[in-house]
């Protein structure tokens, strides 16, 4: 696997993914009992936006940096978007964002006493950086291992409540969707009450249709997806947007996400930008 998230850290997809992730974490915290989070493709946990990789793509400039500048002039910001901006504020303190927190760091910063995070990364150098980042954090376990294998080994957790974040690189394109859904189906059989949040890229929508058609056949009660397209999905050569599929979502979180999507589209979108939040109706499992 050649994917390095350092080239894409802080882009529009990270903004959407991490806003939804924090909203789910906040929903879990509405109850006092501890919860467990599994991050299957954790990366290194923190990214230097002035490093060579980020500089080559400049994606953070059109993502978190553009959102930061937009937010300075807005009087009313949707609560979940404001929550996200507060969580990444340490990266925004300078004239330009410098260090962007990845999903495991955002989760770790939100954990209460008794909550727990397992962060998995398969690339040795990225996993080493991840382990160093959390070397003194007893609530975070880092694992040099395949995230799909971790879903088999670590679920269900003893806490009984929690969330699985699945954020693969999709290097295998369409084949990755099949891998993800097969892994989720198996995990739901072991942990049917778990929340599963799956990030996916959007290039051309027609390539997503086989994936979307399989979702209603999963063994779930409820699911919704939130999508942000920063430009029309008519180019197969770049990522035009992304989505978050949430299975077994907490009550009313979708309302908060729906309120923030128009603001994200306004802040990050180019001409032809769009957004949607859609509930998925369950069908008889295939």
UniProtKB/TrEMBL annotation:
Domain of life of the organism encoding this protein: Bacteria
Q: Which GO terms describe its cellular component?
A: cytosol
Fetch the HAMAP family from UniProt: 23SrRNA_methyltr_J (MF_00934)
| Native organism | Chiayiivirga flava
Q: Which InterPro entries match?
A: RlmJ, SAM-dependent_MTases_sf
- Quote the EC number: 2.1.1.266
Gene3D superfamilies in UniProt: Vaccinia Virus protein VP39
The protein in question is named Ribosomal RNA large subunit methyltransferase J
* Lineage start: Bacteria, Pseudomonadati, Pseudomonadota, Gammaproteobacteria, Lysobacterales
* Entry keyword set: Methyltransferase, RNA-binding, rRNA processing, S-adenosyl-L-methionine, Transferase
* Role this protein plays: Specifically methylates the adenine in position 2030 of 23S rRNA.
GO terms for molecular function, please? Answer: 23S rRNA (adenine(2030)-N(6))-methyltransferase activity; RNA binding
Q: Which reaction does it catalyse?
A: adenosine(2030) in 23S rRNA + S-adenosyl-L-methionine = N(6)-methyladenosine(2030) in 23S rRNA + S-adenosyl-L-homocysteine + H(+)
One GO BP annotation here?
A: rRNA base methylation
Active-site positions on this chain: 167 (proton acceptor)
């Amino acid at each position: 696997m050649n994917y390095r998230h350092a080239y894409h850290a802080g882009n529009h997809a990270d903004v959407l993914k991490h806003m939804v992730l924090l909203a789910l974490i906040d929903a879990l915290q509405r109850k006092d009992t501890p919860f467990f989070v599994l991050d299957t493709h954790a990366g290194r946990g923190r990214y230097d936006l002035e490093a060579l990789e980020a500089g080559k793509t400049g994606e953070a400039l059109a993502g978190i940096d553009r959102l930061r500048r937009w937010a300075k002039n807005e009087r009313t910001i949707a609560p979940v978007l404001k929550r996200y901006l507060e969580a990444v504020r340490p990266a925004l303190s300078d004239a330009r964002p410098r260090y962007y927190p990845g999903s495991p760091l955002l989760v770790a910063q939100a954990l209460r006493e008794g909550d727990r995070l397992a962060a998995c990364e398969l690339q040795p150098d990225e996993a080493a950086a991840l382990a160093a980042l959390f070397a003194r954090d007893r609530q975070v376990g880092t694992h040099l291992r395949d995230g799909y294998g971790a879903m088999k080994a670590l679920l269900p957790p003893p806490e009984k409540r929690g969330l699985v974040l699945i954020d693969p690189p999709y290097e295998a394109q369409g084949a990755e969707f099949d891998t993800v859904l097969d892994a989720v189906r198996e995990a739901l059989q072991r942990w049917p009450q778990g929340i599963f949040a799956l990030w996916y890229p959007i290039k051309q929508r027609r390539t997503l249709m086989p994936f979307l058609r399989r979702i209603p056949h999963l063994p779930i009660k409820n699911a919704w997806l939130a999508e942000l397209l920063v430009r029309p999905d008519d180019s197969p050569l770049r990522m035009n947007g992304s989505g978050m599929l949430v299975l077994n979502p907490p009550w009313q979180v979708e309302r908060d996400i729906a309120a923030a999507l128009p603001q994200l589209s306004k802040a990050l979108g180019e001409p032809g930008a769009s957004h949607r939040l859609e509930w998925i109706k369950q069908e008889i499992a295939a």
